[in-house]
Amino acid sequence: MDLGRQSIMNKKQLKFVIGSIVIVAAIGYLVVTGITRTSVYYLKVNELLSKGDSIYDKSVRVEGKVVDGSIKKDPTALKVDFRITDGTKDMTIHYEGIIPDLFEDERDVVVEGKYTREGIFKAHTLLTSCPSKYESADKSHPEEVKKI
After folding, report:
1. 104: Cβ–Cβ under 8 A, 6 or more apart, which residues?
2. pLDDT tens, residue by residue, 53-64
């Protein structure tokens, strides 16, 4: 009788261990595939342009500085065309969507999208960097704070 109970316990333990392994493997698979599907290359302009045909129509992220005077906004729609540079090469960006408040000439930006065979980067995401330091509009520093 003890042998029968022991056999039943071993079967239950074996089922539990196998079930646990299956669950852990499934979670691991989901994590790995989720990371590989959402990972995006992060390149500078010259790195992207040097890749040639291999980069066309692949989702990439590109960092650069907005070329002064290159911003052309469409006043009737949420569209903007501009150029970015990394100091050595530059490229044209076409973006459709909400334009960040900090977007302006000579601002560091990161765009995410696809580089087309026509030489235009079609961005679906536009991120701007914050200024490295903030300065108040009023340069004077109050000697004492007034209490209300």
Report:
1. 66, 71
2. 888 878 889 999
> Is 101 part of any domain?
yes
How many structural domains are present in the chain?
A: 2
16 and 75 together in one domain: no
Q: Does residue 75 sit in the same domain as residue 106?
A: yes
Q: What is the pTM of this model?
A: 0.63
The per-residue pLDDT for range 19-32, each reduced to its tens digit, is 999 999 999 988 88
CA-wise closest residue to 114 among 51, 29, 35? 51
4 pLDDT higher than 80: no
129: which residues sit within 8 A by CB, 6+ positions away? 102, 107, 108, 109, 110
**Same structural domain, 34 and 46:** no
Amino acid found at 70: S
